[in-house]
Every structure is written in structure tokens, then in C-alpha cells.
Amino acid sequence: MRLIVVKRVKTSNLYYVGIPVLSILAGLALSTLIFASIGVPPDLFISEILAGFQSPQTLRYFALLVILGVALTMSFRASIWNIGAEGQMIWGMLAGGYIALFVAAQSMYVSPSDLPNYANVPGVEIIDASPVKPVISVLLMDPSLGKLLMVLFGMLAGGLWALIPAVLKAYLDIDEVASTLILNYVAYQLFNHLVSYNLRGLSVQARQFFRTDRMNSALLFNLIPGTSVTVQEVLMAVIFFVSVVLMYRYTAVGLRLKIIGSNPQLLRSVGVDERRYILLAMFLSGMLAGAAGVSILANPGIGKLEKIANVVSPPTMNLGYTAILVSWLSILDLRFVPIYAYIVASLFQGSSLLQSEINSLFPELSLTGAALTYIPIGSILVVYVILRIFTEYSVRIMR
Amino acid sequence: MSTQTFFSLNGEKSLNPIISARGLWKSFPGVVALKDVSLDVLPGEIHAILGENGAGKSTLLKILYGIYVPDKGDLFFGGRKVVVTSPQDAVRNGLVLVSQVPQLIDSLTVAENLSLSLSQFGYVSSVRKVSKFLLEKGREYGVRVDPDIEVWKLSYTQKQLVEVLRALLLNAKVIAFDEATTLLPHAEKEKLYDFMKLFKSKGGSVLLVTHKIPEAMEVSDRITVLRRGEVVGTVRTSETTLDQVRYMMFGERLTQLNSGKYEKLGEKGSEVLVVRDLWVRSDYGVYAVKGVSFSVRKGEILGIAGVAGNGQLELIQALAGLRKSERGSIRLRINGNEIDVTNKGSTAIRRLGIGYIPDEPVKKGVSLDNSIEENIAVHPRLTRFLIRWGDVKSLATDLVREFSIVTPSTNAKAKVLSGGNLMKVLVARELTVSKVALVAYNPTRGLDEVSTRYVRRLIVSKAVSEGMCVVVASEDLDEIMEISDVIAVMNSGSFVGVFKSGVSREEVERVMVS
Ligand SMILES: Nc1ncnc2c1ncn2[C@@H]1O[C@H](COP(=O)(O)OP(=O)(O)O)[C@@H](O)[C@H]1O
Ligand SMILES: [Mg+2]
After folding, report:
1. pLDDT tens track for B85-126
2. Which residues make beta-bridge pairs with B355?
3. Are strands B437-441 and B469-473 parallel, antiparallel or unpaired?
4. CATH number, domain at B97?
């Protein structure tokens, strides 16, 4: 006996709208059940999820998920399954962090007696007022230029990191799903090493823990009042979204990126080296993920890099994986990315609210970590994948 | 329409039709694919449906087979009015379709494939039972295929035979072939024809859809001709002539077919393409091209004839920069500069103004999920960094008109085009970019007669008027004889004979097989 999966010939048009919506509803129903089974009342679940849709915090995830959703859609449309946004974001953070801590500004020890003299010097910030070895951060360039450099280097680093699996795929035919995934864990490890040694800070906290100094606050992005989203990340989301849409519509590069997804042999036969476009798709995708990494780092709520204690909760907040859901729900159509980015951001935020509610209301459940946050997102993903499999393939048994 | 001028048999009542379609209409956005089409298939006949690319033949079959639902009209199977909304319905009524593309899964064996497809049609049958049945039916009809062989090991012809066996297992009373014989080499075609005759003698009927007149004339009992979605008429094959059928098929456009002669220049220019001692390996690592040397002058057409698989494909691919040359050189002389393009890659070669028509054109030369405009704009010689869609659209519109490509619009996805029209899109694009040379493999395969003529004429006239040099390999010897200035015969990787045009066909054939 043998199980066979056959691709269906006809797929219905309805599914472009139907499947994403159905996945969200069924995924939420499923998570309600899961939560109910561990003793969380459904009305609490529902009210927290709904709160997620109105929370000002949601905007931050929304902006990040738009950037990442566009990034992943670009590679997915080229039939390159980039699961590596996490690692690319990590490299964005590292490169952005390097610029912020060592190029655009620099930390240094001063003698405790001199410290008061620095209190009001422009461009100098006291980041550790310890009575023994105080640390100040000195700006070395115009902060706007510094921020720009952070973003540019972050994008470059993310893009280069993404080129590794791209080269492996284009020239050695090594599957990118596995390589991008593995490289995420490699990136986490390298991150820990660099943060613990090369980038480690001077301040007391940095020496007590494995982390960098706090960034000079002049280099932090600017919060939009009343939210946790920054002006810069909103701008990036808008600029990236619009320019990628325009690229697809009006440039030869965009057209070819689209065509490698549908028929790479055509590119080859008209004399275009399709391998270069595999590299390009991944490079662009990695650049945007790198930019997302920089905006997480430069958020005033963060402003530093810290050793990852537990791979389940990296500084990327696993958004690199969450964004896969955004791209899939959009059926790889860029126009839908902002819509699903908003929905997924709200669910993500709602789940975090739920998590803290549960921790305070039911301490006896002793559920720690971020695990609960991912239940709704994960359930939707599972339902989505199952629905896609059953609408696009039929499974048969052979005797 | 001039239907009355032809002898019509649709009123004939001697036999009750096994399938009967009445007044079918079907439109797609931008085209009416079928206009009031009626058809009768009698028991024990081979009925050809003939029409040029885009005439609506496949649409008609797909309606009979339940893949499309007609906008209007009725279907009768065995005299009973039926509504067919799925292939399952059609199969239940005794009709099975064999398409040009075998619908088989490569990694499974023949028997597994057939067992799978039987289960799709609601017949449950184990692989072992299917094997036994296959051997029985195979013996009965002289169609031998090993049930336990994996499908990827089969040739195209064998895959088509498996499809035929599938029809037999499904108890077909009528087997419909949608251009299923078009791509077969002649000797193999005969095998299928023999099968059809045997099937007919046992009381079955065959619907043979084709755009090739000789194919229709060769085996059918009756021919129904479709033109632009309308039935022009149904004739008895024994009572008609090739010219009559041709006139039914093309109508007034027939004048475009008038003579086989092309305007040619006597004097050719200087050498443009110079190939010296070229050695190229096949996919299997052995030498497929063994030390070939030739040169082609400005405006000259070199035709490469030969039995398929003697290195023609590898040679063409090496010229297009898509296959590595192990030894030897390929040089181009453009405007007095000599450029060595050996192993310089397809990008560099195509940028110099070399057009390329690949083998398996639909697979390699167009992208079905993209629009016609996108399929044109993808070419690096036709668009710069920014695509001016206005220009692309007007180029596409010109090409659609010039090549009479039947399509709802230039914005339609390539997959809605019929095979011949897809081919035209590809040829049109490549001729547009061929400034220096055109390299082609089977450039008219799958095209109907008018389009074939048209494409050949364009190639020749472009060679003459713009001095484009052409290297064309074709499995169709007539094509080579018709358009080439120089004919090279390739056998086991070498040129075994080089002739000037005007050589007799017999002489070329003799060298081909020696
Ligand atoms: N699914 C479809 N959508 C839009 N147009 C179609 C579709 N299928 C066929 N057509 C159009 O209908 C016409 C007839 O096509 P077809 O039946 O495939 O022709 P043939 O098989 O005779 O070459 C063509 O103009 C073709 O472009
Ligand atoms: Mg057809």
C-alpha cells in the first residue's frame, strides 16, 4: 500500500480570499479550544484578542510585519522559500549595532571626578554613572547620518547573509528551506558570540551581563507619541512597500523576479542568467529583513544588544517566522501584505496581552516564556497549510 | 458561411450517433471560441476534427469531456440528452480523452498510474489486477507496454500508448485524441493509426483532433472542419480532396499559401557565423557533436537535417550559448569585428542580436502564468531597466496582428492560448530580436499550415532583406528543403553531407540514414 499526493488540476478562484479568511477564523476557534483546555475561559481569550486590534502597540508589529512580509513575498514569488528572515534580521541588528556603538558614537570611560563636566555637553551622554568607572557615549557624527548608516549597513549585512543560501541554491542546487533555517541558528550563535566579546560594552551592566552598552539616545529612532512604533520604521515600511510594488510593475528586474517564480527556463532561453536573479531575490529579501532588524534595535524601548538566553525568545521576537504567515495569507500578492500584516500584528499583540493576563490571573498555571503568544499564530498557520494541501492536492491510497 | 456548398452528412440517419452535439456556444473573455457547433460521432468511425490553431477544436473536446460547460447547446450520448459537468460524467458515458500532454506521474509505474486514474473515475482496482488487464488488452490491441516500468523511463510515444490503454481500461466507446499524434515521428504515428483502425473494427469510434490535413486524410472516415469557432462542414474523407479540405480550413486566407517559392537573393554576403571543429557533450556526458565546422554568410540559411537525436539539438544549444563547447570555436563577424563567443554564455550571445527558438518551445520559451506582454518584455533586447508598458503593448499588438495570434488580448495569460498561438508568440518575439542571426530548432512544430508558411516566409524574408543569417535544425525534412540555401545532414554527431539547395530529397534522405 502506498499513499500518493496528486496535484489537483482545477483550483477555485474563491480560494484566494476564502482560504486566508477561513484559516484565520478556524485557527482562532482552534486556539480558543486549546486555551479552554488549559483552563483559560474563552471570553477572556476573545476579549484580549479583540483588544489586540485596538492596541497602540500593534502598530509596531504592523510596521515590522509589512517590511518583513514584503521581504518574504519577494523571495517566495521567485519560488525561493526564504525561511531565514530571522538570521537576516539578526545580522541587521549586529551591523546596525556596530555602527551605533563604534562608528557613529563611541563609549568611553571617564574619571568619576570629571563626570559632572559632561552633563551638559552636546553630543555626550552619560550612559553609566557608576561612581567607580563611569561611562559616557560621545557622538562622532551627525545623528541623522548615523541613523542612515545604521540602516544601510544593517540592510547590507542582512542581504549578504541571505546570499549564502542563495549561492548554495543557485550554483550547488542545495535546498534553501533547510539552509535558511539552519543559518538562523548559526546567526543566533554568532550573535551571542559577537555580543559577548567583540561588541560587549564598558558599562557595569554590560560587564555583568553579556551585552553591549546602551546606544547613544541621539541615535535611537523617534517614537510616535502614544505608541511604541517609530517614525523611521513607518517610513521604511511605506518606502519599501511602494518601491517594491513599483519595481514589480515597471522594471525589467521586477518582471524577471516574477518570471523565475513561474518559469526559470524562459529566462535562460532569452539569455538571462536565472541564477543571478535567484541571488538578487534573496539579497533584496535579506536587505529588507536587515532593515527590520535595525528598527527593532533602534527602538527606544530596546537600544542595545543582549546575549540570547533562550533561542525561543530571540530579540527578533520571531517575527521572521510570523511574517511567513503574512506572506502566505496574502497568497504572495503584495497588495494584500499590509492587510494581513495588520491582522497578524493584532493577533500577535492580542496574544501577548493574553499571556500577561494569564500570568497575573492564573499564576498557578505557571506558564512561562512566550509559548502562549504563538498558539493563535501557530494554529492559523496549521489550518492554513492543511487547507492549502487539501485544495491543491488530493491524497489517495493505492493498493 | 459557405456551409451549403459542401456535402453535409449531419442529416444522415442510417446510424444513430453515439455522441451528438447540438448548437454549442462557448465564449471566453474577448473571444467566442465556439459558435453554434454541431457534431455527430457515429459508431465505428474515425472522425477527424480539423482546424487551424485557435479554431476551437480543444474547446469542443473539453466540452464533450466535461471540462468546460457550454454557454448554450445540448449533448446527447447514445441518443440520450445528458449534462456532462466532469470527466467522470464523460467517462461514464463512454468517452475518454487522450491529450497532447500525457497525464501520468513520472515516479509511478504504468500499472500504478492506471490504477490511480481508474480510482479517480470511481473504479476501484488493485495494481495487480490492472497489470493483468493491461497485458490482456495490450495483446488484444497489439499495444505492448510493461506494466511495471516506471513512467519516466518511457518515450513520449509509449506514454501516449499508456494513455490509450487507460482509455481501454475505462471501457471507452469513443476515444478522443487532442493533437495527440501531432508530435509523434511518422513511424510511431503509424502505430497509433493501426490501433485506431483496430479499435474501429471492434465497434469503437475515434475522434481525432488535428491541425494537420494529411493526418486527417490518412486515417479518418469523415472530417469536420472548424474555422474560427464555426463548423464549415462535415465531409466523407473518401469523397473529398486535399484542396477542398484545405479551402474549408483556411477559406480566403488560402491565397497566402499560394506558392512554395520564396524570394531569394542569388549572392550572399560575407561570413557572419564561423564554427570550427566544435565538440559538444550530451546530457549523458558523451560527445553528441563531434568536430563540426561550417560557416554561414550574411542572409544565408543553413538547414540541418537528420534523424532526431544525432547531435542537432546539442549543436543548436551550443550556438545559443546554452551548452558548453568542449573543443573548437564559435565566432561571429559583426560590422567587421570578429567576436569569439565560444562558451561566452547565453547572455552575451543574445545581446549581440541572436534570436533563439528552443526545442520544447512551450516549456522553455514562454511562461504560461505570465501575460503575452510580459512574455515579450522579458527579453533583454526589448526592454531596458524601466519597462515602457505602452511600447510593449504596441509591439505586442503589432505582433498579434502580424502573426494573426488568436487571443482575447495582449494582456491575457499565455496559458489561455492554444498551443499554436503560443508558438507564434515565441517566434514573433525571437524574430523581432534577431538582428544578426537566428538559431532555431523545429521552428514550426505544432503550427498549422498557414502559420507554418507564414513563419517560414518571415524567416526567409528577414534573411534576405535584413541579412540575418539562420541556422535551423528541423526534424521535418520538407522544412529544411524548403527554406535552406545550404543543407547539412547530421548523423552521429558529424556533418555527413552538405548540399546546395536544389538537391533532390532522395539524396538527402539517403545520407540521413546511411
Ligand atoms: N480557458 C480559456 N480562457 C480564455 N480563452 C480561451 C480558453 N481556452 C481557449 N481559449 C480561446 O479560445 C479559442 C479556441 O481555442 P482552442 O479550442 O484551444 O483552439 P484549438 O484547439 O483549435 O487550437 C482561442 O482563441 C483561445 O485563445
Ligand atoms: Mg488545441
Report:
1. 889 999 999 999 998 778 888 888 999 888 888 887 777 778
2. B438
3. parallel
4. 3.40.50.300
Look-up: residue for cell 544565408?
A: B300
In a shared domain, residues B297 and B412: no
d(CA A348, CA A322): 9
Cell digits of residue B331: 565566432
Q: B residues 346-375 near A, CB within 8 Å?
A: 346-347, 349-351, 356, 358, 363-370, 374-375
B335, B477: one domain? yes
Quick one: DSSP state of residue B185?
Answer: -
In a domain, B262, yes or no: no
Taking alpha carbons only, the member of B511, B510, B437, B452 closest to residue B482 is B452
Cα dihedral sign for A376, A298, A335, A183? Answer: negative
Question: Which residue of chain B has the CA closest to A274?
Answer: B347
Of A2, A266, A273, the CB nearest to B378: A266
Q: For residues B240 and B330, state if they share a domain.
A: no
Choose, out of B379, B383, B411, B433, the residue to mutate when testing the contact with A (most A CBs < 10 Å).
B379
Query: What digits encode the pLDDT tens for the residues B429-448?
Result: 999 999 899 999 988 887 77
Q: For A99, which DSSP code?
A: I
The protein residue whose alpha carbon is closest to atom 20 in ligand 1 is B54
- Asked if B322 lies within 8 A of A268 by C-beta distance, the reply is yes
The whole domain housing B40 covers: 17-255
pTM over 0.80: no
For A255, which of B356, B364, B378 is closest by C-beta distance?
B378
Whether the CB of B334 is below 8 Å from some CB of chain A: the reply is no
For A204-240, letters b (16+ CB in 10 Å) and e give ebbeeebbbbbbbebbbbeebeeebbbebbbebbeeb
Closest residue in chain B to residue A399, using alpha carbons only: B126
H-assigned helices in B171-251: 186-201, 213-219, 242-250
Cα distance between residue A136 and residue A146, in whole Å = 17
CA distance B172 to B168: 6
Contact: A253, B385; criterion CB under 8 Å: yes
* A150 close to A101: Cβ distance less than 8 angstroms: no
Are B459 and B263 in contact by the 8 Å Cβ rule? The answer is no
Q: Residue B3's pLDDT is what?
A: 38
B316 and B293: one domain?
A: yes
User: What is each CA distance from B407 to A95, B56, B403, B413, B420, in whole angstroms?
Assistant: 52, 12, 11, 9, 11
- Phi then psi for residue A131, to 5 deg, are -70, -20
Cell numbers 503574512 correspond to A326
Q: Architecture of domain A2-104+141-398 in CATH?
A: Orthogonal Bundle (1.10)
User: What is the pLDDT at residue B383?
Assistant: 86
pLDDT at residue B351, as a whole number: 86
Q: Report the alpha-carbon distance of residue B414 to residue B129 in Å, rounded.
A: 41
Quote ipTM for the complex: 0.83
Stretch B475-495: mean pLDDT, rounded? 90
Q: Is B377 on the interface with A (CB under 8 A)?
A: yes
